[in-house]
Design a protein that fits this description.
Length: about 260
């Protein structure tokens, strides 16, 4: 009898131990699966502030995967783009901002994403001879910001960036026009230079543009067009040094006539 009781108690003890282990594992599993997206987002923000971008992205990706409400997952998607931007990885940032806008173009942070997308291209602008494509893309995105989100909070900065981009694009056209001029490809030079007057009428280096247009016409034997252009230059910028150069060209034309 005692042996049967001992076996029964042993079996009962083992069952109790097994049940305790199962309950413990279930509790551990429940605790490990507990997820606070808001706290995780704050942690990621702190990491970003400390420039620990890779670790921040890991947490943000986790939020995207686990937040069933999508409330924090949407913000996490945007903050991933921010980590690339803050780290100077503007190409990756542009991809992420554009991806966000493709899905959430009416989100309350959509104008922010559009502004940062434009800035991702603007930040890649370097010298005038190699940055035309970045300036053009930045200009397109800044103008899209004004069109899609006219009440955005970045108006003053955006308008300033648009002016900068337009000047860079005009500078590039002048750079190419002068290149053709030096190569004595005057017809090609005129195409680029006249495009400046048409596309960028507020260009701050219009006087030099007019000068090279006038001289190019003269080199091609089109004296009437040359004189008209050079007279316009002298009339509009009478005190400039380049107007004196224009007067010399005009004098040579009159001498030949």
């Amino acid at each position: 009898m005692k042996r049967k009781q001992l076996k029964y108690l042993t079996r009962l003890g083992l069952m109790f131990l097994l049940l305790t282990l199962l309950l413990s594992c279930s509790k551990d599993k429940h605790e490990s699966s507990y997820f606070e997206p808001e706290e995780s987002l704050k942690e990621a923000d702190t990491l970003i502030s400390n420039r620990k971008f890779e670790k921040a992205r890991e947490i943000l990706e986790d939020i995207k995967a686990k937040d069933a409400s999508q409330k924090y997952a949407t913000v996490a998607r945007l903050r991933i783009a921010d980590t690339y931007f803050e780290d100077g990885s503007y190409e990756e940032a542009a991809v992420e901002y554009e991806s966000f806008l493709n899905i959430h173009n009416r989100h309350r942070y959509a104008s922010y994403a559009q502004f940062k997308l434009a800035m991702s291209y603007f930040k890649r602008i370097k010298t005038v001879d190699v940055s035309y494509s970045w300036a053009k893309r930045a200009l397109d995105e800044f103008e899209r910001l004004l069109q899609a989100y006219p009440r955005n909070p970045y108006l003053e900065v955006t308008e300033d960036r648009i002016r900068t981009c337009r000047k860079l694009l005009a500078d590039y056209e002048l750079y190419v026009g002068k290149f053709y001029f030096k190569k004595k490809s005057y017809t090609a030079a005129l195409l680029r230079l006249n495009n400046i007057l048409k596309t960028y009428p507020d260009y701050d280096n219009e006087s030099e543009t007019l000068y090279y247009i006038g001289v190019s016409y003269n080199k091609l034997g089109q004296q009437d067009e040359a004189m008209t252009t050079l007279h316009a230059l002298i009339s509009k910028y009478p005190a400039s040094k380049i107007s004196n150069d224009a007067k010399k060209v005009l004098a040579s034309i009159h001498k030949k006539q």
